[in-house]
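Lecture 7 notes: from sequence to structure.
We start with the chain below.
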Amino acid sequence: MGEAELRLFDTLAISAARPSKHLSLSPSFQRCAFAAWIKERIHKRECCFFSKGDREDVCECGYSKSNHVDEAIKPEDFTGESWDKHRHVREVCTDAFGEICFGGLGQKMGKYVRVSTDTSPEILYQLLTEQWNLSPPNLLISVTGGAKNFHLKARLKNMFHRGLIKVAQTTGAWIITGGTHTGVMKHVGQAVRDYALSSSMQGQIVAIGVPTWGVIHNRDALVNSEGCFPAHYLMDIKGQGRLSCLDNNHTHFLLVDDGTQGRYGVEIELRSRLEKYISGKSLGTKESGITIPVICLVLDGGPGTLNTIYNAMQNNTPCVILEGSGRIADVIAQVAGLSVTQVTIALIHQLMKKFFGQESENFHDLIEWTKKIQDIIRMSNLLTVFRVSEDNHGDLDVAILQALLKASRTSESLGIEYWKRQLELAIAWNRVDIAETEIFPDESQWKSSDLHWAMFSALVGNKPRFVSLLLENGVSLRDFLQDMETLCDLYRQLPGCFFLRKLAKRVHRSRHSRGQVFGNRPRCPSGHCELINMTHVSDEVRHLLGSFTEALYPPPPTANHFNMTMVDTSLSLSKSQTDSPAPLIEDSTEAQRDSGTDLFLWAVVQNNKELAEIAWEQCRDCMCAALAASKILKKMAEEGSDADEAKDMQALANHYEKHAIGVFSECHRSDEERAQKLLVRASPFWGKTTCLRLALEADDKSFIAQSGVQSLLTQIWCGELSVVNPVWRVLISIVFFPLIFTGFLVFRRDEVIHREIEKDEEIKTVEKVTGSTLRTNSHGPPQHLKPLSKWSRLVCLYSSPQVKFYLNIVSYFAFLFLFAVVLMIDFQATPSAGELLLYIWLLSLVCEEVRQLFHDPDGFGFCKKARMYINDLWNILDVLSILLFIIGLAFRLTTELFYAGKIILCIDFVVFCLRLMAIFTISRTLGPKIIIVKRMMMDMFFFMFLLSIWVVAYGVAKQGILINNENRLNWILRGAVYEPYLIIFGNFPTDIDNTSFDINSCSMNGDDPLKPKCPVLNENQTPAFPVWLTIIMICVYLLFANILLLNLLIAIFNFTFQEVQDNTDRIWKFQRYELIKEYHSRPAAPPPLIIFSHLYLFIRNIVLCRPPIICKEFKNKLLQAEEEELLSWEALMKDKYLLSTQQVQSQSMEQRILDTAQKVAAIADRLEREEERSSVDTVKGLARLEEQVIQSAKALQWIIDSLKSQGFAAKEAQLPTLITTDESLDTLRNTLEKEDGCHVNARQFHYPNSKLTRFPVPEEKVPWEVRFSSYMPTYYVSEEGGDHMDGSESETLHNHRNPGGRTGITGRGALSHFGPNLNVDLVLTRWRDSERSVLEYLAVLDESQGNLALPGGPAHSADHLPLTLQRTLGKKLFEKINAKVPEGTKVFEGYVDDCRNTDNAWVETTVLNIHLDRTSKEMVEINSMVVSSHGTLQWQEVSGKTRLGSNQRDTLRQVAELHNSKF
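Predicted structure tokens for the same chain:
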């Protein structure tokens, strides 16, 4: 198949596996695309040569003759080659894939595919992630151990199940097992079954089974060349025999096929390659260099499990051993705490007998197992033993994650970056508990800049607990968000949410509009179009908050702002950084930004409650932030189309309204004056708006209803008058204003002066009592306010909104009185003086309405202001009354329409009277009742639709029965609508009954316009309609209309009253603001005198173009110092509110029950652990006692034998062989003495660059002095150059014996010479500066492994440099440095534990330090060489964080000590 077709299959398969919301693919198409993908890439293996095995009809591959293809069956007389798995098994397209359905309770489903052993792990990873839609793992847990069924203790079983699922759930891990329903795989399946669907955990647990295809029982049900969707699989445990059933609790299966049947362990190689491939993938979506961690979890197991553990740890994979699970796991657990020299062959033999029982009698590789166990416990950083009886281990999930962190912590190759890897792993796993205990201990001090990447990762990954942890451990939000680009990146990585979709639309419109402005521009490549910037965010947030706010993030004043592609953007950015004065402007606006506010807004727009809660606690202007969040969320809920998302937004908006109420309540209780300042203070962080304005725009009625807010409104309502003045005094003072000069009214200035006088009196009293003047001196000279002058008192009286309101009420009553007089008494053809006054009066009202429409102190804009004006019911009545008056006036001035004009004016008078209800809105008693009336009017309006159905139905039927062919429209409506409507109110009709019929009351032909048409008459001149029918109809009509519907209306009114009654006070307090603000901005003079004020305002604002007078009652901009002091006080009140909230929550009944349950569970767990520990201690004590008895018996036997030998001289006293015949107490003592001298690298199983395996040499058998009779090392000599033996082979080998002891291989190996092979490492050092503060050394970069190394190589003599350095340094420089060798210092000289060492050849290294002066010629040449090497040569600081090997790091430490430098 061609490459183009292959890409097509990829596209179809991936799109089918991940259909989007907008593109819904049918299941059949998805299956076809998946099948095509599988057939193209996945193969199985089958035998192509039938060769008879032990049975006649069974091939050596294990399959029967019938399971082979025809060409595989040869004639009986065929005498060809013998069967070989490598040559007689071929790959063909797989025939088993799809979905698997397990029978039984629950109908569990999974996915499976049959794969070849040679399948690429990359293909399998694509299958898992792209075709099966698995999210890439943050952790890979490879569970291994006993394949046979084994018993776990109840406590260990529960901890294993709970811990495994918890770690998989919290970290997003994949669990990989053998996949069959036996042994450890069965336990993993049970864990998935027991905990995956529990209420405390959500989401699917990924358990991937990798079994061998040839050992699966009932596998024929899975075979279908086109795939099975699903395949019904039957678990037949009893009839499986030597085969195994798949585990029904695993979610995915990779069935590994090598073409054979009945052979276990086929999957091991492919599983290892898959795990290694996954471990090489980057963790998360970004390329951070951190790969997916892998851990091996071991339960039970035999020799195969030991090999798995050893190979895993050789690949730096940490292992967790569960003590108590049995066999090899318990053997390793028993020796894990011992030193390597204590782990002897005898001890392992003893433990094998103890934990394996009779099975241990068949073991013959005890030496190899001992060596592997020693190597395992030597790598203590990779080994973790989980002991149920120990308190410090906690749960298994914690042990697993701690094991991974321990492995990364001791990895020398990571150096200073090891903690970063740990933290990144903890964030990826979302395990803040691990980070607290392992990464952030109490004594740790972190720089904020070092944790910025972690904060970004935690925010983008939605890890709120990590965000809190990072803030607690030194992250400064101010430093983190100091660069606007960081905040912009956060918005670009928003999760899919409503705000992101709106931003995308805004970016698209912006790009489209710019394209139209600048003409056609080249199309940007995919993925390189204009990205989201903070201007887009600012515009969208301003849209959500309202146009009355200013931009939160003003656009930079640069001409290069209109960029369309990433290339243009980068060019513009570089240009602005070099040419434009943007930094100065940024500095000027920096004070208007608050990092806590920025982060809070980012969290709110994505409707993330937990992150928003954390960020809100960091906000400086917390109350304004909470109200802004309420406004934004309610606006998004209103515009969004997703009902569930809108409900969540509304709930979060209410939550932050409660926060604002809580903080303001604390502020008001502490200081009422400061709290009122917070309400009307212009916030620089939220578009220069106020808390009060935000609460009104967000419709936060509960906040406005707070006593502190109402107190402010009352204070504004009274103006400069005191709020304690009774209404009657104010009314009397309006008429008799000289009373204000007598103290009849109290002004606010008088109250302030009175408080100051009282305060001074208190201070004087304190001075007299204490005899001190410090307190008065601290206050400085008193600065008393002056009382108001008479003119000021008069101005303050009539400019008070309260007084304006009363004057306007009186004026409005006078206007209505004049209007009524004109309509009833003085409505002449020629307008009278009173009517002309009425027209002037109305003109003043029109001017006032126009002023209200254009008066915009909050900066809403005309469109917004017009919408707000129309949305007010009272303004609608004002406009309606004015329009009706103008129409009536126009009709009245014409002779033909004079009377019609009067009628319109009379109707207009009704509208003016209804407008009079607005005066009651200020009343605390009548104001709420008006709200109830409004709601009832709405109910009645909808009720009339229901009532009209019955009215029209009865009226039309009655009219049709009584009257024949009535053609007068007015009488039709009267009979069909009007009369049935009056019946409801008791006006019983007389024309439906013959007894009350009067022929004189109607017109026969309907020609009398004043009489109705007579009904159809019979010969007796009586109505012919059936009376019984009309009576039944009216009875039914009255039953439903008069009884049912009217009572329903009463019930609706009652329900509305009860529902609204509880909220009317809150609603009234909310609507009271608009009335107060209206009269606060209204001119003092009432109509019609107000027209002079309008004339003054017109001349001042329009003609003279003077700026409007700024009112500070509703919006006040504070000075910087006062602003900072007020915000600090608000932050203190916020902390008090949060503390009180936490205390209330902790004292709640639910929290108490939860705490009690946790304590009871902890006590029960502790008791169970103590009980188990006591039983374990008892068993150990008995075991030690038994061992001592055995040792005593052997010692007594030895004494007896010694005594007997003295009587019989032919025998020699023999010590008891407590361990083995090959060793004695002396040799064991010698071994213990040489514990630190044994080489390790030289005894690795696999010899480098070859396929040879060393003979296992346990630690106790390394010294040549120790007898090792079974030692049979392999002889190996590399084919590459080197010397050859002189003389006999045995003599040469005997003459050259490794001083470090046995290595498991003889010969020269890969080294050049028998005996010592000299190697010289050069340490060139210099001081970085003249102050000799930092010592540096020259290092060579090993590009293959990415590590650094000291320059060096093999040499013939330690007095000369290796010739290999000539290629690195150049001939001339090499000669100069070689000449300085005698001046150098030998730092180390001796044997080196090298992996190439053999019994007869080894490496000896001399480390030479040559220190160069910074000004020497050699240093100049070396520096030029470093520059031209492009990173191959590097000057590195002499430090313990350097990336050198362990041996060379030790050498570098000695160099640092030589120069008295820090390491």
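Points to note: The chain has a mean pLDDT of 81. The chain is about 50% helix and 10% strand.
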